[in-house]
Automatic annotation (TrEMBL):
Signal peptide (UniProt feature, chain positions): none
The S1 motif domain, residue ranges: 78-159, 434-512
Species per Swiss-Prot/TrEMBL record: Leptidea sinapis
Example GO molecular function: RNA binding
GO CC, alphabetical: small-subunit processome
Name recorded for this polypeptide: S1 motif domain-containing protein
Pfam families membership: S1, S1_RRP5
Single biological process term from Gene Ontology: rRNA processing
Length: 561
């Protein structure tokens, strides 16, 4: 059988990467001093989530270990992890990490060759540079190294010299998986940067996957096709063909278990698959002793315990758009409590997808959501565990709202707090240009205000704080203090949506009283303009003694002059 290199660590080539499940399923307490009891036969409707009783984690070391989650306290610099891109912005990438963490990759931490392209562009040596939205796509899996963790922010790098820093030329063998960057384009292929000292890598054009359009600086997964070694250096030939990348990854179907799966890799090394990373197929779970293929997500310090996933990260049929059955702000009327994780301080629920709105391929017949304990109102007389067991007994149903979706763990963040259940605005798609809304001030500066409209962030430029506009005295180097005098953090104000830009996640409000009049006719687009109609406009620029550049209140403000 084909073998697959253990990711993300380098080292000695494994003789086998089979993941053999131990005789003890996690969540079931092993007791050798008592007679074995016959397992209760489950009904056809029991999907493996529901259990009659909650296993106390202090009774089972394996249960405790499998339940451990990454956190901002555990994750440290130089930590290697597999992530999934959740959002692509102009200058950075947001990445979904295990245990529902989020990290950031700045444009300067993608590859050395991309940095050289940026520098050449700044120095007018090249006419254009490839933009991040054309280099990456939402849902793409990437190898990452932690650069910095501070104030619940994780800065990441995907540069080959960082993610492959623990590898040496001797670690490379046929079939080994690498994350590489395009250094240059040659006549017959691409020179690739793999970040391994004394190693030259080449990707022939006929070995590039047909779905890829490579350019200098881009990151891609590659598999080693051949290696030629000499005393001074190694020459590696690569392939990025998707069929080759998938060849060594054989999926095994499974139903979710109480807590996860414990098994052994490389002979006797204990490893774990947590519940969100157990794949399913035909409603069957792995049998005792069955060998399954996995990819390692990370190694938990201090013992470097491997945590893995059964999911195929190179499956071209899986896209982030098809995975989601619910959008942010959607309400699930009958989410069912299925388990709670004591160590992780959270409870989980599942809900049936609506056939009218959800694609059939999105996550199977049910979707799983996680409700954090911090979103549960606790009682002084009860511990967290007692309150969870009291408020969310297994099998009970609850009305919850979707807060977000985590691409790597494939679970929703949910809440049952009444104020969030009653909130009107959860995303920009629920807002319309010209709509009058109530906003809460979150930041006050001399030049602008920041506010929230429900769960949506908004911006108020200085020119739209009042009808008086902006007067800059050329004899004084000061700016108006009106915003600080008139507005305070936490203050509720009435505003009108001036512009929406979902690509940049930008919402601009106006607080001008003249634009808040209830009988104001709003010009929201060119198409709605009528010859002879009168609209209220905002002066955008004054030159000399004439207003030769004014802005009409419209959707495309930069062009409506």
């Amino acid at each position: 059988m084909d073998t697959e290199e253990y990711f993300p660590r380098g080292g000695k080539k494994p003789t086998s990467t089979h993941f053999k499940q131990s005789a003890n399923f996690l969540g079931t307490i092993e007791k050798t001093d008592k007679k074995k009891t016959k397992l209760k036969k489950k009904s056809d409707e029991d999907d493996g989530y529901l259990s009659d009783e909650i296993v106390q984690p202090d009774e089972d070391k394996s249960y405790r270990t499998c339940g451990l989650c990454l956190s901002y306290k555990i994750i440290k610099e130089d930590f290697l992890v597999l992530g999934r891109i959740s959002e692509v912005k102009e200058t950075k990438l947001l990445v979904s990490l295990p245990s529902r963490l989020i990290g950031t990759v700045m444009a300067c931490h993608i590859s050395e060759s991309y940095n050289k392209q940026l520098e050449a562009y700044v120095n007018d040596q090249i006419d254009k540079v490839k933009e991040l939205p054309t280099m990456f796509k939402k849902g793409q899996y990437v190898s990452l190294k932690i650069l910095e963790v501070s104030d619940r922010q994780i800065m990441l790098s995907m540069m080959p010299q960082h993610v492959n820093s623990m590898r040496r030329p001797a670690d490379l063998h046929k079939g080994a998986l690498l994350q590489a960057a395009v250094s240059s384009e040659e006549d017959h292929g691409f020179m690739m940067d793999v970040g391994i000292p004394n190693t030259t890598a080449f990707l022939p054009k006929d070995a590039v996957d047909s779905e890829l359009e490579l350019d200098i600086g881009m990151i891609t997964w590659c598999s080693v096709k051949s290696v030629e070694t000499s005393p001074d250096k190694s020459v590696v030939k690569l392939t990025s063909n998707m069929a080759v990348l998938q060849k060594s990854f054989q999926r095994t179907s499974s139903d979710p278990l109480d807590n996860g799966i414990e098994g052994r890799i490389f002979g006797d090394r204990v490893a774990y698959i947590q519940r969100p990373h157990i794949d399913t197929s035909k409603g069957k779970k792995p049998a005792l002793g069955q060998k399954i293929r996995v990819r390692v997500l990370y190694c938990m310090p201090p013992g470097n315990i491997p945590y893995a996933s059964m999911r195929d990260v190179f499956d071209p049929a899986v896209t982030s758009a098809l995975e989601r059955a619910y959008n942010d702000g959607d309400i699930v009327e009958d989410a069912q409590s299925v388990y709670f994780r004591l160590g992780g301080r959270s409870t989980a629920a599942k809900g049936k997808r609506s056939k009218k709105t959800a694609p059939e391929s999105a996550g199977g017949p049910t979707c799983t959501g996680v409700l954090s304990v911090r979103r549960v109102q606790m009682h002084d007389d009860f511990t967290d565990e007692q309150m969870l067991a009291k408020s969310y007994p297994i099998g009970s149903t609850h009305r919850v709202r979707i807060l977000g979706y985590h691409l790597l763990d494939k679970v929703y963040s949910i809440t049952d707090q009444s104020n969030l259940l009653n909130e009107k605005y959860f995303s920009m798609s629920q807002l319309t240009i010209g709509e009058v809304v109530t906003a809460t001030i979150t930041e006050v500066t001399d030049k602008h205000l920041r506010a929230t409209v429900g769960r949506v962030q908004a911006f108020v430029p200085q020119a739209h704080v009042s009808d008086s506009g902006i007067y800059m005295d050329p004899k004084k180097a000061t700016v108006s203090k009106l915003t600080r005098k008139k507005y305070k953090v936490g203050q509720e104000v009435t505003g009108r949506i001036l512009s929406l830009d979902e690509g940049r996640h930008s919402v601009v409000l106006t607080l001008k009283p003249s634009l808040l009049a209830p009988d104001l006719e709003v010009l929201a687009s060119y198409e709605s303009a009528r010859v002879g109609a009168q609209y209220t406009g905002v002066i955008g620029q004054k030159n000399g003694r004439q207003f030769d550049d004014s802005t009409v209140y419209s959707r495309r403000q930069k062009e409506d002059k």
